[in-house]
């Protein structure tokens, strides 16, 4: 009996002696950014201004923002605060009206470059006038069917022009701005006929071309005005299709791809997209997606 107890005790002590030591990984401390060279901070601030409001910072703005980051040890939180200022601060800024105004104007112009080949508001306004003049001519001649088509084209283009301030004021969200950019006569002129329109809409908004099934269903939807099921929903005309495609999860994934491409010149990883989509598909906050990317060391070139 005594020998048995002794053996059990010996085995127990042996197991204790085999306990794995705690492994300490060298050089694994959290990064400290407080001693970053001033030149790196200036380059970061300069890039933020250009990407967000379309211009370089003035000397006074550069000094102030670099010092702000320095005082906060260039933490991710301080970077986010600076980005938010450029996105939403409404304090008067000479030449820009405000940072917020300049930011939304920059966003609007970038979307026009992406979807309308950079068509200026003057050009869109001229097309708007042409549609209205044609509407008046058809109305006077009693051709009300064609007149109403011209008036519809007028309103679709006018919706593109007013989208900037409506987005600025929170009246519409990022998906509606995109929808208006692809549902007007200028976009149709760039992508002539239904075949090109369908391929362009999928490519521009979802960063892929439609499957054969998707193409066939959308083609019948637009050409025949018949109800078809595609992208998880139903629509029976071109306008309804633009609402449908701009409310899909793939649309929001597409804006993430676009954001990574413009800011980091690469596509997001599957993990990055999944992480952002957890909240983005619900809150529709594209500005937060930008901040997530622009706070990183990769964007700032701090690594």
Model description:
The model is unreliable at 1-28 (pLDDT under 50). It is globular and about 70 Å long. The chain contains 16 helices and four strands. The relative contact order is 0.08. Among the domains are: 38-88, no CATH class; 116-190, no CATH class; 250-300. β1 (92-93) and β2 form a beta hairpin. With 303 residues, it is mainly alpha-helical. The chain has helices at 2-17, 38-53, 59-71, 76-88, 99-116, 121-140, 144-168, 174-182, 185-190, 193-206, 212-224, 238-245, 249-264, 270-283, 286-294, 297-300, and strands at 92-93, 97-98, 228-230, 233-235.
Keywords summarizing the entry:
disordered N terminus; two-stranded antiparallel ribbon; 303 residues; 71% helix; mainly alpha
Describe the global form: globular
- Kindly report the average pLDDT value: 91
How much of the sequence lies in strands comes to under 5%
Query: Helical residue percent?
Result: over 70%
What is the SS-derived class? mainly alpha
Separation, N- and C-terminal Cα atoms: 65 Å
Summarize the structure.
The protein has 303 residues and is mainly α. The chain has helices at 2-17, 38-53, 59-71, 76-88, 99-116, 121-140, 144-168, 174-182, 185-190, 193-206, 212-224, 238-245, 249-264, 270-283, 286-294, 297-300, and strands at 92-93, 97-98, 228-230, 233-235. The model is unreliable at 1-28 (pLDDT under 50).
Question: Could you outline the blueprint of secondary structure elements for this entry?
Answer:
Elements: H1 2-17, H2 38-53, H3 59-71, H4 76-88, E1 92-93, E2 97-98, H5 99-116, H6 121-140, H7 144-168, H8 174-182, H9 185-190, H10 193-206, H11 212-224, E3 228-230, E4 233-235, H12 238-245, H13 249-264, H14 270-283, H15 286-294, H16 297-300
Antiparallel strand pairs: 1-2, 3-4
Helix pairs in contact: 2-3, 4-5, 4-15, 5-7, 5-8, 6-7, 7-8, 10-11, 13-14, 13-15
